[in-house]
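User: I'm preparing a small set of examples for a lab meeting where we compare how different chains pack in three dimensions. I only have the primary sequence for this one, and I'd like the structure in token form so I can line it up with the others. Please keep the answer compact; I'll paste it straight into my notes.
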Amino acid sequence: MLNIEEIIEIADNQVFEHQGHHLNDLQRAILEGTLQGRTYADIAKEHQHSEKYIKDSASKLWKSLSQAVGKKVNKFNVKSTLGKCSFSSTGRCSFSSTNIFTINSGNLFKESAPSPKNDEMIHKQEQITSHLDLKDAPEIGDFYGRKVELSLLQQKILQGKCNLITLLGIKGIGKTALALKLVDHIKESFEFVIYKSLKSLPSLTQLITEIIYLNDQLIPDNSPHQLSQFKKAIEKHSYLIIIDDVNYIFSKHQVSGKYQPGYEEYGNLFKLLSTTKHRSCLIINSSEEIRELSKLQNDHSHVFTLELLGLDDDGVNILKKFGLKNEENYRKLLNIYQGTPQYLQIIGYLIQELFAGDTNKFLQLDQPFLDIELTAFLEQSLDILPASEVELLHFIASQKGSVLLSELENSYQVYEPIVSSIQSLKRRFLLSTQQINAEVSLEISSLIRKFYHKLDHN
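Assistant: Understood. Below is the structure token output for the 458-residue chain.
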């Protein structure tokens, strides 16, 4: 296996061979940092440039390398692509067919050398296997923990042949980061790797067209048969597709999982995925349960759902990166903010900025402390709730500790709607239930409780 210095030298030689100039110092730094797994933000900070300048420079670098070696190169595949480069007598880079990996009954194997008549087919296959479309994916920065989850998901997809993975959990728990980290581990097993977010509310036709139109040329615009065409594509090729932020297509101020008008067709997509076995794998992220996929994995071996909880000891590393004082307080902060990565990021920055990194001073505040940023973050999850769910959360927050279900029966004249609100809040991961003897208790997080307490006092 080539080391980083050797890969950089290959890149430099190929650029010089094809374009007549060597990599400059910044290009070498970007390439080295990328191969080390560092983010553009880290590289920018070290070399005293803006992150945008580094991103722009990196984009030009990947384009230059792609032209030099004749294959698409980006930050995700630069190591594997240049590592497969062999040289002709002229010194130019070529790719032997022994470096082409295909999938056969789930096992990876090397192709034997092709006969000349198969050269065109192999060339097409090389182009397909290099398709990585993560341009819309966010930069995940540093990644902490989740080793158990990564190992489990990798096993489910590669050995268990799961076609549909659903990652669920509250906003900020790290679903996107986990999915993108997983891509790094398994992308070589798929022909196409694609990330799409539903934050911008694309129609189902638009989403499917963006995923497979350029590759298979199957779907004309506004095709009434887009689902059947999509099914053909994921059966024909091996796709790894992340569909992020599914909760954005659900209606606000309605019971959980109800689609916005015009987005009901997504329900048919999820039904199709839950009942169809194919060559591909789709990873679907949502902060609300998806009705069509709820409780399916007991009956379908190709479907797996994972609810993400807070980080355990690995969450401490988020606080460490801020250089906070009194490390004996890290565990306390981890528990207060429930190991939620986004919460810890916000609080770590706050302590660094306003408390000079002193965790003792910060812990003297009434905990959990919700600053402006964390309050706004919680509002994004809570402002979408219907009045009945807000009322129920408010009631539970006003009580000390958990609330027994029987207490709600005594407090509300009309009991049936409360049951629906409990179900809906559970499916949003904003409320949990626990059976104690013959009673069921309702619990909310200390942060949600504090959020409603603040509202009452403002």
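A couple of notes for your slides: DSSP finds 20 helices and 13 strands in the chain. The longest strand covers residues 192-197.

User: Perfect, thanks.
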